Amino acid sequence: MPLLEINDLNVRYGEIVALRGVSFNVEEGQVVTLLGANGAGKSTTLRAISGLAKPASGDILFDGKSIAGLGPEAIVRMGISHVPEGRRVFPGLTVKENIMLGGSNRKASKAELSGEADAMFDLFPDIRKFSGALGWTLSGGQLQMVAVARGLMAKPRLLLLDEPSLGLAPVIVQAVFRIITEIRLSTTVLLVEQNARMGLSVADQGYVLETGRIVLGGKPEDLWANEAIAAAYLGGHGKPAAGLAAH
Ligand SMILES: Nc1ncnc2c1ncn2[C@@H]1O[C@H](COP(=O)(O)OP(=O)(O)OP(=O)(O)O)[C@@H](O)[C@H]1O
């Protein structure tokens, strides 16, 4: 049984149809990457899974149980943690306190959460020096690491990661993706990325969304071989980008 099963999912924002008949599975232990241009529906897919967007129809099964329409708190308690785009951190708290907040869904004591947050800095050494600081100024990459560390504090069975590379310099993107390769050793990951090269480099399976529909899916090596993946990024004109073709 897949850990996550999405069947014929439709999501609307008022008149706007954001997802049309989206179906795919995520097997336990896999990294699955959703690719697609701006507005294709990638974030909406994650929002529907984590309970932030209500499906108009279709179903979402997690570990065999329907979670479609449940609220975000119930869903996080079941073991799904969502790291949204935008890396929101709370400026009135230290970096460590920001990370500890991610564990507030669990029954763990403050001391346990504190110990686990300290251990997170082994995975994210770049932000260790900010651990206890107030009034910190973090770079985009460091904010992203705080957001991912916070998501991991929920000890999720499934981590939803929305565009972790957005706006980051290439060297920082590589650091973030190195962390994903470590996370995947213990956690199933559903990743949204516009950076196809990076997104597929860590994936077992990839899907391309276009205007709310899955137009292509498969193993990374098969997707690379298909010009449609380039087309998805070039507005559907089918001209392969040099970077993609060179893979
Ligand atoms: N809160 C909202 N209200 C109305 N329409 C929305 C809302 N959020 C998203 N949409 C619309 O739903 C569609 C899918 O958006 P979504 O954010 O899921 O795409 P995306 O692939 O994640 O793109 P991006 O990378 O820009 O976030 C788009 O047409 C978008 O304009």
TrEMBL record:
Superkingdom of the organism of origin: Bacteria
Pfam families (alphabetical): ABC_tran (PF00005)
InterPro entries per record: AAA+_ATPase, ABC_transporter-like_ATP-bd, ABC_transporter-like_CS, BCAA_Transport_ATP-bd_LivF, P-loop_NTPase
Keyword vocabulary terms for this entry: Amino-acid transport, ATP-binding, Nucleotide-binding, Transport
SUPFAM superfamilies: P-loop containing nucleoside triphosphate hydrolases (SSF52540)
Domain ABC transporter stretches: 4-236
Transmembrane segments: none
Any GO molecular function: ATP hydrolysis activity
PROSITE patterns per record: ABC_TRANSPORTER_1 (PS00211), ABC_TRANSPORTER_2 (PS50893)
GO biological process: L-amino acid transport
Similarity comment: family membership: Belongs to the ABC transporter superfamily.
PANTHER family: HIGH-AFFINITY BRANCHED-CHAIN AMINO ACID TRANSPORT ATP-BINDING PROTEIN LIVF
Function noted in UniProt: Involved in beta-(1-->2)glucan export. Transmembrane domains (TMD) form a pore in the inner membrane and the ATP-binding domain (NBD) is responsible for energy generation.
Name of the molecule in the record: ABC transporter ATP-binding protein
